Description:
Layout: E1 2-11, H1 15-23, E2 45-49, E3 53-57, E4 66-74, E5 81-89, H2 96-117
Antiparallel strand pairs: 1-5, 2-3, 3-4, 4-5
Amino acid sequence: MHELGSRLRRQPAPPHVVWRSLRDPYEVGSRPWLELRDDEVPPRVLAGYAPVLLIWSSLWPHRPLDRIRFDLVAHPPGPECALRWTLTTDGEVPSESTLGYLRHRLNYLINDRLRRSYGQ
């Protein structure tokens, strides 16, 4: 398994809320945040342990062996949490330009779109 990228950032919501948002990005009543592009597909949850770990399938059909792991840790004293996404693959390591795109896209979805869905 190859690690292709990882980023740790704070989220303004507690771990159980963020975990739920990741588990079901299209949950009724939640603010939409996972806006996929034409070359992306909705992820499937492959594994999870609430509220600290969740693993998604790839967002990219042309990269079916990629996985996205989310690790969540409470961040006292407030309700925040630290969320780390890690992109891994059991397949071929992509070119630098593709790798840059994949990292940028995940960072945008998780550290911008998801974060803003909580009002930040």
